[in-house]
């Protein structure tokens, strides 16, 4: 009797497996970022007037090299390449990379900076990882969402909206009046500031409920946090409640505005 060799399933056959692969890569990039953090570095100001450091560039090089090994056929749109005008054509499936989100927080040395990698399919983030190396906390999401903190892995999920009111999050370094005006329409019990994509993760792990962002962001700032939040039971919508989608190449991958919610958007 001839035996047919069993083909093992591709290790990247599920959104969770992809998020795990991104997590490994983000940890490697995070370690390189922490080496630069320890020795200190200067910032250069990019054309969009945002800062970039050696850490952003070293981390992005590691991520691009590792992604080319594990997902060689998927185009990658990465922040520092894009800043130099190197942007591949994207189809229905592509990867977004922000090697160091919260560069201002990195320079201010407050620990609120992250490595972000997300897979987009048909305009939506289906797997993603957010790693905050300074506080050794990793969030990932595919079909499920999880956090690894101090070496312990736990499933995370969003919480029901508290009856006493919502906890709202805002950017620490880029506050904007329109986001404040949006929040004024809801019952807000507590308001906190945080840097980077960690704001999505705070909602995903059930310690906050809403994060509106009317100020400028790029798709790579948002996609990985969006993947984690969606997998944890939340959502990211346009302020009018429409879907918030990715792949806006003609707009230079710029977002307009979005609101991240832990549950369905409550009535105003
Ligand atoms: N004027 C602007 N244009 C485009 N993006 C901006 C911007 N001001 C801030 N951002 C985005 O906001 C991100 C920081 O978010 P937060 O304010 O929540 O920490 C920045 O990510 P980087 O640090 O990766 O550049 C940057 O992409
Ligand atoms: Mg960013």
UniProtKB/TrEMBL annotation:
It is found in: Cell inner membrane. Its EC number is 3.1.3.7. Pfam families: Inositol_P. The keyword Cell membrane applies. Keywords: Cell inner membrane, Cell membrane, Hydrolase, Magnesium, Membrane, Metal-binding. Mg(2+) 2 binds at residues 98, 101, 221. Mg(2+) 1 binds at residues 79, 98, 100. GO terms for molecular function: 3'(2'),5'-bisphosphate nucleotidase activity. It is a peripheral membrane protein. It comes from the Bacteria. Its main location: membrane. It is an enzyme of class 3 (hydrolase). Substrate binds at residues 79, 100-103, 221. It catalyses: adenosine 3',5'-bisphosphate + H2O = AMP + phosphate. Its cofactor is Mg(2+). Converts adenosine-3',5'-bisphosphate (PAP) to AMP. HAMAP family: CysQ. Belongs to the inositol monophosphatase superfamily. CysQ family. This is 3'(2'),5'-bisphosphate nucleotidase CysQ. It comes from Labrys neptuniae. The gene is cysQ.
């Amino acid at each position: 009797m001839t035996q047919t060799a069993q083909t093992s399933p591709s290790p990247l056959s599920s959104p969770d497996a992809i998020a795990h692969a991104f997590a490994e890569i983000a940890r490697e990039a995070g370690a390189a970022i922490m080496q630069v953090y320890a020795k200190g570095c200067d910032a250069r100001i990019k054309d969009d007037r945002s800062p970039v450091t050696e850490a952003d560039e070293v981390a992005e090089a590691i991520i691009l090299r590792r992604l080319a090994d594990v997902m060689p056929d998927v185009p990658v749109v990465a922040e520092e390449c894009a800043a130099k005008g190197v942007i591949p054509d994207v189809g229905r499936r592509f990867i977004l990379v922000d090697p160091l989100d919260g560069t201002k927080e990195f320079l201010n040395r407050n620990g609120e900076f992250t490595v972000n990698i997300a897979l987009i399919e048909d305009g939506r983030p289906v797997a993603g990882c957010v790693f905050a190396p300074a506080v050794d906390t990793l969030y990932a999401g595919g079909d499920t969402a999880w956090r690894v903190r101090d070496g312990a892995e736990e499933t995370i999920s969003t919480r029901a909206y508290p009856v006493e009111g919502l906890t709202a999050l805002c950017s620490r370094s880029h506050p904007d009046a329109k986001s404040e005006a949006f929040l004024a329409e809801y019952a807000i019990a507590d308001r906190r500031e945080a840097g980077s994509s960690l704001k999505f993760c705070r909602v995903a792990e059930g310690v906050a409920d809403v994060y509106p962002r009317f100020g400028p962001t790029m798709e790579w700032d948002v996609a990985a946090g969006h993947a984690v939040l969606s997998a944890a039971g939340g959502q990211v919508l346009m302020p009018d409640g429409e879907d918030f989608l990715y792949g806006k190449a003609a707009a230079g991958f710029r977002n307009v505005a979005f609101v991240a919610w832990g549950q369905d958007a409550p009535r105003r």
